[in-house]
Amino acid sequence: MGNPLSSLDVTVFRNLYALTFLDLDNTTLTALPVGLFDGLYKLEELYLCNNQLSDLKNGTFRELYTLRILDLSNNSIEHLDPYLFADMPKLKEIGLSKNKLTALDDRLFAAQLGLLVLHLSNNRLVSFDLQAMSYARTLFFLDLDGNRLQSVRIAPNLEFLTVDDNQLSTLQLPDSDYYRMTTLSIQNNSFSSLESTYRFDRLVNLNVTLNRLAAIDLALIAEQFPRLNVFNASLAGIESLGSLATSHRHKALQHLDLSNNTLTDSEIRKIDQFPKLESFEYGGNRIRK
User: Fold this and answer.
1) Is the CB of residue 283 less than 8 Å from the CB of residue 257?
2) Which is it for the CA torsion 203, 97, 81, 37, positive or negative?
3) Which of 98-102, 255-259, 283-287 has the lowest mean pLDDT?
4) Which H or E run contains 223?
5) Which residues lie closer than 8 Å to 32 by C-beta, 6 or more apart?
6) What pLDDT digit, counting tens, does each position of 151-181 carry?
7) What pLDDT score was predicted for residue 103?
8) How many helices (DSSP H) and strands (DSSP E) are in the chain?
9) TM segments (predicted)?
């Protein structure tokens, strides 16, 4: 790690049959010759981030049958061959953040029947349809921060989603009787309503900071998110917290941030239905001293 290499001889790892961990992070690599990793049958973790890789040829990762983690973050990758990862059936986590990807082929992870974690932040994606991907049933963590997303369709089994700093106004959901989402961050987008999130009844952590909400219905939030523990809705232009026509008491919410909105004293008083609150931030609103 950290040694300037630029390129590697195709035979450099040829006799390291017992290798399980390989870190080539920050080595100024510009290319990976096909066959470089041949024979590394026991390799489980491979780190290639912070380099200058752009063109990864089909066969680059052949024979990496036991690889679990692959990190290609912070390179210059614009396109991925749909069969690039075909020889890595045990891959569980892949990092592709900080590249120049505009789309992912539906076939890209067809061989990864147990993919769990996918990092795609800071690319150039305009849309993403997880439900159409072969790994929709296994993926539980998806990071799409800092793209150019205008549409995102999730899958029911997804548990952690962060789509901060995009251009989203809603989330698209497939028909399902249940969703496993527990953590959702939609910070700095263009949401004017939280309606598309109300089916996530297992939600524990919700961040809607820096959106255009104007109003949020605390009574509805208490009803739809019975397990919600942390709710951050600062800097969201919120003027109203709803009518609170229900007497429902929320028993899980412990941390609430409504700071830097345009709420008045009468609106702030509506948090009475969250008796378990341990921390409440409301500075920067229209509250009389």
Assistant:
1) no
2) negative
3) 283-287
4) helix 218-224
5) 8, 48, 53, 56, 60
6) 999 999 999 999 999 999 999 999 999 999 9
7) 95
8) 2, 14
9) none
